[in-house]
Amino acid sequence: MNVNSSGYIKGFELNAETINEFNEKWNITFSENISVDCLTIHEHSNQLIVGCSDTNIRLFDLKTNLNLSKLSSHYDYIHDLKVSKSIEPIFYSGSEDGTVRCWDARIGSKPFNVLIPSENKAIERPEFGEWIGTIDVNDDQWLVCGGGPSLSVWHLKINDCAHIIKTPGVIYCSKFVSEDLDIIAAGDQNTIVYWERNHPFMSESIHVKSSIDTIYSMSHHNYKNFNYNLFSFCGDNHQIEICKNATHIDWKLSV
């Protein structure tokens, strides 16, 4: 995908035969003067979900490029969007306004649930603020979120915080990495945090030291045939760090 601050988003498809050719698959242009803060695709409904600079979320049909709806509920920047793995068009948004909002594209313009982590005294960290910078979901039952408030795991069916994961600083990215609900997260303070749900001391987490002062992005792939996870991290310097099973940094790539 190509996202432009001038108000358009383009999707490209790689030519599988030549590998070096890209064909434009869709092109969406905004009528308003706005930019894109984050986006994701719900593959089952073939909808593009876009968090925009005017604090609205816009849904587009990727077959027709039409704007299906504009969801107005957040009142500050939208930092992250995650979609359900189910066939239903359910998705989640995290914002600078300190909320995580749960949406169903079929039932109108208002979220069906709102979480405010900073209202929990055990989660709030006034020194870092209320903003939510990262979210991830697992089977529409569990959600992890963090940012200024502590990293926390929520049971969506009962709307309750199940676990709080202590981190040394703010969090910019987080992800469920297994069906056991293990979580990896990173942010500032040169630290990667790995939390194992089935560890005998669930309140504790593994801290991996990084040479990247602030990590803004990470990816994960599970190699089942070889029984290990591979993680990569990048942020505010020229290196990409790679580690297996989140115990220490195995490789560093300079770019």
Automatic annotation (TrEMBL):
* GO cellular-component term (any): transcription export complex
Q: Keyword Cell cycle: yes or no?
A: no
- For this entry, list what GO says about its biological process: mRNA export from nucleus
Instruction: Give a yes or no for keyword Secreted in this entry.
Output: no
InterPro entries per record? THOC6 (IPR042626), WD40/YVTN_repeat-like_dom_sf (IPR015943), WD40_repeat_dom_sf (IPR036322), WD40_rpt (IPR001680)
Q: Which UniProt keywords apply?
A: WD repeat
Family statement: Belongs to the WD repeat THOC6 family.
Enumerate the PANTHER family for this protein.
Answer: THO COMPLEX SUBUNIT 6 HOMOLOG
Q: Tell me what this protein is called.
A: THO complex subunit 6-like protein
